[in-house]
Write a structure and sequence with these properties.
FAD/NAD(P)-binding domain, globular, 2 domains, 8-stranded mixed sheet, D-Amino Acid Oxidase, Chain A, domain 2, alpha/beta
Length: about 400
């Protein structure tokens, strides 16, 4: 393979572009929207602990491997580009506000320990010793106890994307704005992409277009469940940082950046390709922050945004060759873990494309694999999370 065109300039497309270019492949990236317009930019950048353990699901093995790679990539990216992507082992605190919530944390802690992660159960007093700024939440009866995952990390998506883009350009990758409408296929080969302004030819093609991949894959007769699941975030600027750990409660979270910015997220909304925030949700998220941290004097809402997570049907992204085509591949459907799984996804697909033995069995990720049985809700799938959101009353 000597030249490759990747459709998609989010975390998945850029990570693959960097990896392929590092192996000597001439790479071109086509992206309709870049930087702040991608779901990747909109992410929170939470990396939960991801130890390898007996009986691990393939998706979790991909995360575990990616987690290791992220530590190496962060150092390499900083050395190559001078950009610090903010990878930080801040730890994660999970809070309960009811007896049922405490019971769930006990079950979760047992599960984490069984997998080999350090998980500590904390009473309300110990939670406050960890994060004194949660005193307001404790006084209001919002915190009965918690669980501490010391190995949880965070990364700043915008900086990571900037570092990836610069590294790609240093490696000779051409990144262009283009709106791909369809592909021209002759026999078993994709010949060219038809864009809004012309046509582009390439020897090899990769679809890495996030939530929009399903629409493009239909051109090849491939049914792929990458419909968008919206997530909203509010960004506050505080006079100084209040907490050090990522604070999670049910599906909501607070992520403190060292410069004082505080991300408050999020939602899981099956509302189609609507990239807008909604006033009700912004108000609700501000309420989450205040219910845990108190009135937040001196804080300013800097901005709010929404991103469209690419869903998957079985808890696994699709990574590999597109069935019945000789020169087309796909990497999409990373749903809630695309930042975390981006490094492993890039190396796995680059291995498959360049004829190297892959580190992980690619079969569970194969595009075109059998769909889960109708009515089943596999762990980690989009349906699983939507059901949990409904249960949490969002
Ligand atoms: C609120 C929120 C919080 C999140 N938090 C986390 C987190 O903490 N940790 C984590 O690991 N993940 C998180 N995620 C998930 C993560 O953001 C996604 O899984 C990931 O960004 C998907 O990356 P992608 O490159 O596949 O898609 P995208 O980032 O959406 O990139 C798709 C690219 O394809 C391009 N494209 C689309 N259609 C076309 C076309 N027709 N022609 C040309 N280009 C096209 C787009 O312009 C874009 O460049 C979060 C997501 C959201 C919304």
């Amino acid at each position: 393979m000597n030249d490759c065109c990747i459709v998609g300039g989010g975390i998945i497309g850029l990570s693959l572009a960097r990896e392929l270019a590092g192996r000597g492949v001439k790479v071109r990236v086509l992206a309709r929207g870049r930087g702040a317009e991608t779901t990747s930019w909109a992410a929170a950048g939470i990396f939960p602990p991801s130890p390898l353990h007996a009986g691990i699901l393939p998706a979790d093995a991909l995360t575990a491997w990616s987690d290791k790679l992220h530590r190496l990539w962060s150092e390499d990216l900083q050395a190559e580009t001078g950009i610090d992507n903010g990878l930080l082992s801040s730890g994660g605190l999970y809070l309960a506000r009811s007896a049922a919530g405490l019971e769930r944390l006990r079950t979760d802690a047992t599960r984490w320990r069984g997998r080999g992660a350090a998980a500590e159960l904390l009473d309300a007093q110990a939670v406050l010793e960890c994060e004194p700024a949660l005193a307001g939440g404790a006084e209001a009866g919002e915190i009965l106890g918690g669980m501490l995952l010391r190995e949880e990390m965070q990364l700043r998506p915008s900086r990571h994307l900037d570092a990836l883009e610069r590294s790609c350009r240093n490696r000779g990758v051409v990144i262009e704005e283009a709106d791909v409408r369809r592909f021209v296929v002759r026999g078993a080969r994709v010949e060219r992409a038809v864009t809004a302004t012309g046509e582009i030819s390439a020897g090899t093609w990769v679809l890495a277009a996030g939530s929009w991949t399903g629409g493009l894959a239909r051109t090849f007769g491939l049914a792929l469940d990458t419909r968008p699941i919206r997530g909203q975030i509010v960004l506050l600027r505080l006079p100084s940082p209040l907490i050090t750990r990522i604070v999670n409660r049910d599906l909501d979270y607070l992520v403190q950046r060292p410069d004082g910015r505080l991300l408050v997220g999020s939602t899981l909304e099956d509302v189609g390709f609507d990239p807008n925030t909604t006033p009700d949700t912004v108000t609700r998220l501000l309420g989450v922050a205040r219910s845990l941290l108190g009135e937040l004097p001196g804080s300013v809402v800097e901005r709010s945004w929404a991103g469209l997570r690419p869903s998957n049907a079985d808890g696994h992204p699709s990574i590999g060759p597109i069935p019945d085509l000789d020169n087309a591949f796909l990497s999409a459907g990373h749903f809630r873990a695309g930042l975390h799984q981006s490094t492993g996804s890039a190396v796995l697909l680059a291995d498959l494309m360049t004829g190297h033995a892959p580190h992980l069995d690619p079969a569970p990720f194969a595009p075109g694999r059998a769909a889960p049985p109708v009515g089943s809700v596999p762990a980690g799938s989009t349906a699983d999370y939507l059901a949990r959101t409904a249960a949490a009353g969002e």
